[in-house]
Amino acid sequence: MVKVHFHGHACFSLSTPEHTLVIDPWFTDNPLADLEAKDINCDYILVTHGHFDHLGDAVSIAKRTGATIIGVAELATYCANQGAKSHGMHIGGGYQFPFGRLQLTPAWHGSSVLGENLYLGCPCGFVIQLEGKYIYHAGDTGLFGDMELLGNKYPLDLALLPIGDNFVMGPDDAVTAAKLLRPKTVIPMHYNTFDIIRQDPYLFKEKVEAATTVKCEVIEPGQIFSL
Ligand code: NI
Ligand code: MN
Q1: What are the residues whose beta carbons fall under 8 Å from the beta carbon of 93, sequence distance 6 or more?
Q2: Planar angle of CA 14, 171, 106, nearest 5 degrees
Q3: Cα 157 to ligand 2 centre (Å)
Q4: Nearest bound ligand to CA 50?
Q5: What is the pLDDT of residues 183-195, one digit of tens each?
Q6: 98 alpha carbon to ligand 1 midpoint, in Å?
Q7: From the CA of 159, how far away is ligand 2's center (Å)?
Q8: Are 104 and 74 in contact (CB under 8 A)?
Q9: Domains along the chain?
Q10: Rounded CA separation 140/218 (Å)
Q11: Which of 32, 89, 122, 203 makes the best surface tag, with the fewest CB within 10 Å?
């Protein structure tokens, strides 16, 4: 069983009996966060891109816990230079980790350290194979047609899709993404953290369940979805 714990925004912990992976660990100054960075224990930290609301507390958690940060090579090197253990990969590449196989997927977005003229490579998403389940975290991205390839390749059990609009897909494009990806379940993310990304996730649930056979689970920060 995989426990999918939502921490708010794009941050999730995926736990199995042996491993805990945290994706986009933004706790400090995250208005939606259910926990503080010091409460997090994990062995891997997956980071989709360099924006503060995703890279977040990755380095401090990695240094305290000894967890390995996984991201594109530029981001992984940036974290390693700050003393964190890291594993660099790149778009399209997969690797067999002790927890399972992980493949990096494209994402249409930026990846600078905002406010500094420093780019951490390209942004990405992740397909994570854990305990026989396939989980897709899209990262920050707009809709793209190659999501259909991911849907063809992987029998996705769960897709974590942004719906906030402005910086990422809005709800209508996320419905199209769900059509292309064909996961069993979708959980919306990256909304209501800031006024500019305010959305009604239940309206998204209505739309996606009317247009597809995908089930939508709206979960609040602090809630756990098991699959
Ligand atoms: Ni971003
Ligand atoms: Mn973001």
Answers
A1: 103, 104
A2: 55
A3: 23
A4: 1
A5: 999 999 999 999 9
A6: 28
A7: 17
A8: no
A9: 3-219 (3.60.15.10)
A10: 18
A11: 203
> Is residue 58 a contact partner of residue 25, using CB atoms and an 8 Å limit?
yes
Distance between Cα 192 and ligand 2 center (Å): 12
Residue entry with tokens 């350290």: 113
Amino acid at 190: H
CA of 86 to the centre of ligand 2 (A): 21
Beta strands at 215-216 and 224-226: parallel, antiparallel or unpaired: unpaired
**Ligand number nearest to the C-alpha of 165:** 2
Q: What is the mean pLDDT of residues 141-153?
A: 98
* Cα distance between residue 205 and residue 3, in whole Å: 21
Taking the C-alpha atoms of residue 191 and residue 152, their distance in angstroms, rounded to an integer, is 27
CA 139 / ligand 1 centre spacing (Å):
8
Please tell me whether residue 198 adopts helix, strand or coil conformation: coil
Alpha-carbon distance 101 to 153, whole Å? 14
Average pLDDT over residues 190-214: 98
Ion ligand 2 neighbours (CB, 5 A) are: 53, 140
Rounded to the nearest angstrom, the distance between the alpha carbon of 14 and the centre of ligand 2 is 19
**Is the predicted pLDDT of residue 117 greater than 90, yes or no?**
no
The torsion of the CA quartet 17, 182, 160, 127, rounded to 10 degrees, works out to 60
